[in-house]
Write a structure and sequence with these properties.
The chain is α/β, with parallel strands linked by helices. The chain is built from ten helices and ten strands. The radius of gyration is 17 Å and the shape is globular. It binds adenosine-5'-triphosphate and magnesium ion.
């Protein structure tokens, strides 16, 4: 049975101070899929993520989530509906402990579901258990990324948006995070949309890719084509 569409945009426009960045983005993601958005620096990938979660207003077009239009809802309401967002650069609360960061995530997530249990997060990310009392600002980049993901998972989202999870992280940790995300997707059915420039992470996680150029989706890459490294690499930063 084909799964339902969970996230869809039609002709989405957004920008900054009258300067358009997104210029008619169309995308469609089904429940349980893992989809990458790739593209060179500055094409609007982060702007797309911010517009989806509601940190930036859209100027035209629509965003629907689980069949309902959400583009006029606040970011807070979208999070409550079950959309989790991990920004580029992670943004953990540096002076709070790992444990306290996770507790914050519990309070801002999807309201209709029982909040995630910290032990479940520790199960996926054992390093967070080891470091539970450590201040988040003193963790390595890879540990902070795991914490940022764990914090969002505490809210039990059905869709998670990840903006460049591999950025500034050692290759072996990138592979660990990719593996954990695939495990999570298999175990819970969570839908994952992630922006990425790291070819290894894209190939180990994505079932398909959208290519973004100048604020538009200009191509789609399916699983078979993902095998062809050069086909993917041409759309990434050099
Ligand atoms: N807060 C802002 N104010 C004004 N312009 C912005 C702002 N944030 C981004 N832009 C501009 O919008 C365009 C798209 O930026 P965005 O961050 O979405 O790109 P990106 O694809 O995520 O790039 P990167 O790969 O470097 O993260 C760029 O030209 C950028 O300079
Ligand atoms: Mg970006």
């Amino acid at each position: 049975m084909r799964k339902e569409v969970i996230l869809e945009t039609r002709g989405l426009w957004a920008g900054y101070g009258g300067k358009p960045v997104l210029q008619g983005v169309d995308l469609s993601v089904r429940e349980g899929q893992i989809v990458a958005v790739i593209g060179r620096n500055g094409v609007g990938k982060s702007t797309l993520m911010k517009t989806l979660i509601g940190l930036r207003p859209s100027d035209q077009g629509s965003i629907s989530f689980e069949g309902s239009l959400i583009d006029r809802l606040s970011g807070h309401r979208r999070a409550r509906l079950g959309i989790g967002y991990v920004p580029q650069g992670r943004d953990v609360f540096p002076r709070m402990s790992v444990y306290e960061n996770l507790l914050v995530g519990q309070s801002i997530g999807a309201s209709q579901k029982p909040a995630g249990q910290i032990d479940e997060i520790y199960g996926y990310f054992p390093i967070l258990k080891e470091r539970r009392d450590q201040r988040a600002g003193t963790l390595s980049g890879g540990q902070q990324q795991q914490l940022a993901i764990g914090r969002v998972l505490m809210g039990k989202p059905s869709l998670i948006l990840l903006d460049e999870p591999s950025e500034g992280i050692q290759p072996n940790i990138v592979q660990d995070i990719a593996r954990i995300m695939v495990e999570l997707n298999r175990a819970t059915g969570i839908t994952i949309v992630f922006v990425e420039q790291n070819l290894d992470m894209i190939r180990s996680m994505a079932q398909r890719c959208y290519v973004m150029e100048k604020g538009r989706i200009t191509a789609e890459i399916d699983t078979a084509t993902l095998e062809d490294r050069d086909a993917v690499r041409q759309f990434l930063a050099v």
